[in-house]
């Protein structure tokens, strides 16, 4: 009887340990799947932007004059905006590097700076819209311009919200540290995505239209 009781107890302990290991494994897998899910989402968004880029290039190839005379674009403000947004990618990476060194205050600082840079970029884009002198329905070029930059601006806005969400959650003690920072990495990955898309947009809408 006593031997049977001991065996039963050992089996329960082994089962408990195995269950704990399985739960830990599921937790780690969940973290990996979150990053994978974000990358999958961004891949689908890339296809949407790719469709917009393809449509724009087709319109341009079939147009005699591009852009039409009444819808010319300037370079100064968009160039400043580009420098701000591209620089913010390096800034947000500093935040990710800081949390991997368990420097929570450093992460907060760099993420706050990144959010401010994103807001400045959006403000610059709104100002550009207000001073262009043409609207969404003026012609095909203006339609492409507003749709593509507006769609990208929406993604920048979402990115700013993600960064602010990370900062809000970082108020809780132990929520982020050198071994637990998936949310921070996901915000950084998303931000790099909007930067890359903008570089393509800037090239298509501003640089190539000057040639």
Question: Can you walk through the features of this model?
Answer:
- The chain contains five helices and no strands.
- By secondary structure, the chain is mainly α.
- Helix 1 (2-62) packs parallel to helix 5 (182-207) and helix 2 packs antiparallel against helix 5 (182-207).
- It is elongated.
- The relative contact order is 0.13.
Distance between the termini: 91 Å
Poorly predicted ranges: 1-6, 8-13, 19-31
Query: Average pLDDT across residues?
Result: 87
The proportion of strand residues reads under 5%
As a whole number of angstroms, the C-alpha radius of gyration is: 24 Å
Category by helix and strand content: mainly alpha
Secondary-structure element order, N to C: HHHHH
Roughly what percent helix?
A: over 70%
Helix segment tally = 5
Q: Tell me the number of strands.
A: 0
- Which term fits the overall shape? elongated
Largest sheet: none
